[in-house]
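Researcher: Good morning. I'm working through a list of sequences from a screen, and I'd like to move beyond sequence-only analysis. For each chain I'm collecting a predicted structure so we can compare shapes side by side. This is the next one on the list. No need for commentary yet; just the structure.
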Amino acid sequence: MNNLPYTISINGVDNVGKTTQMRLLPSHYTISKISRFRVENTRIDELHQQGLLQRWWWESTSEDFVYSMVDTLALRYWNATMDLDSKVVLFDRGVAMFEAISVAVIATKRPDHDLDRARMAFRTILEESKLHLPKETFAILLTHGESPIESLQITLSREKEILDERYRLYQVLLQSELQRQERDGVYQHIIRISATSSIGNVQNELREVIFKYTTNSLFLPMLHQLETVYIISGLSNSGKSSIAENFCSHYGTAHAFRTRIVYFNDLISEKVGRSMYSLADKEQARELYHELERFSTAHYWFKIIILESMHSHLVTEWLKVWLGDKLRVVYVDTAETLRLNRGLVMPEVIASKDTLKIARGVGLIRFDADLVLDNNDSLANTMNNLLNFDRKGKLKRSGQLAVK
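Model: Good morning. Structure tokens for this chain:
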């Protein structure tokens, strides 16, 4: 029994960000991430494969619903905890969340929509059938909104499909049941997400909680070894490489690492078994983030990583959402005449490369960059401007510079 992994569930109202937070947690062979309720070769999986899950969800009997969900949960738990490599198992929704969902579904189907009676019916089914639910070691609840009404409004506003009255009623009941569980102390930790909470801040709070109970150093804050990740973007022959090289030399190779973005892209492509560019932009960003985390953990002495030649606006945008001020985006702005004169290749080749970069969103990176770096003067002046920007960033992060 002592060899069993530490099991943790991440629970919360729909559309609070559970899945996003799960995917941002460390990616490592000793950490298993188990999503949703579907498990292969179970009734729920078969219904999903047949396109009948939604219909069954609302039309099944309470007994059938609970039996099928318990079967899936038990098999999911068994499969996860029998992995000999796993030290920590993370569940996207745990047993308490399942209980809240089941009670809400039963209450939705009842004519009186009474949660107390639905809860009693749920417990009766478990007792009469002698069903046992293996609970996680630790359960975390994510909440959003300043009130139950606001929480419901946020959840419904994030739904992509047209909502019917039955689904709205279900959400009201589900959130009421989760709030009751919270009051009754079902969850060991509550993370309250406010309107000003960034995804990165929530992720670091979640990691702090998990680290406190597991003492597993993989759950230290995101990229905690690094002070800054710099992205250096711009059109062809704008001077990105010279600037990145000089910036790295300023800090010294013992403290700063500089590479073209293709270095990490190739690692990702090898890992997923296909071109990174075949992934959706958010997936590309998440895979890049995890590669950065692995790299910084293995090369803990580096305080700065400089990524040269990033041209995807959406990937950059997602990284910025997650990493906040730890990520600094610099766009190197150089006049076309200078770019053409500096190049050793034909103008049409430069134009072709620019077309590809523009298609990937390099122009939008310029618009959203933390610094548009004028490189139409000497390299010395350009570097002076970049280093001044870097110093101000350090002062801001340390609280010594007032934010205007």
